Amino acid sequence: MNVDRRRETPLARRGAPRFIADRTHLVxxxxxxxxxxxxxxxxxxxxxxxxxxxxxxxxxxxxxxxSVNCSVDLDLEALLGHRTLGISEGRTVVEYVEGPVIRAMxxxxxxxxxxxxxxxxxxxxxxxxxxxHRRQLTNPLTAEVVVAHPNxxxxxxxxxxxxxxxxxxxxxxxxxxVFDVPYVQGEALAQLIREASALSNADHVERxxxxxxxxxxxxxxxxxxxxAASVRALLDACDLSAHMPPLRAIRYAIxxxxxxxxxxxxxxxxxxxxxxGE
Length: 278
What we know:
Blueprint: H1 10-13, H2 25-35, E1 40-43, H3 50-61, E2 65-69, H4 76-80, E3 81-88, E4 91-98, H5 100-107, E5 110-114, H6 128-131, E6 136-138, E7 145-147, E8 153-158, H7 170-173, E9 177-180, H8 186-196, H9 202-220, H10 231-241, H11 246-253, H12 261-275
Parallel strand pairs: 1-8, 1-9, 2-5, 5-8
Antiparallel strand pairs: 3-4, 6-7
């Protein structure tokens, strides 16, 4: 990959915090894979920072990003574009509007595909040619053969074991290099809280780190669903706790996202051991 363009990236413009991982080699190794022309699959639980990692990699490679959020309703038009009516020289004409896959291939951008394993399997084979050595696809909407720019690369993300997801077929999976993105913990999590939330109370930061470890353990043994351990939800709670008592913040940002009252009670019970009386 020949990436030498200098520009102000969306990540830098909005001042988003950098991706922080327990395993310091994760970012560097994923970047190496992309620079070698590989496509990357990020595998991890919801709220573990997969999207932030993709943004950080786009920033390091100085590439604009096109995004696709997969759902069961995803179709070829959402990937490749659509036809619409326009006006040219006073006449109504049919125009083609490029989709994110075509724009990324043509302009040499990073394509980020979130929740790849939620999409219907019959939609995804259109990407096979773009993801292998051919680096091209035939657009069925225009009959054009689109050849990828040298900078074009793909990062996809999946949450395994969630309702509505399915296993990726071998042909698609083999087109990626796979990186696991676990929940960040310990000092790395404390650093993330300090950088990415409004919470400045050092003692409370440490307590939230310990609470996160309890939530992760509870999710690993099945007492809580995986989403209860989401770092994204924890950061929401940290933001709120800068302006209200931590237990209320945890009720809104973490417990409130769970549908089972017993799970909500467990989250608050764990939190109470750290923030009772606050």
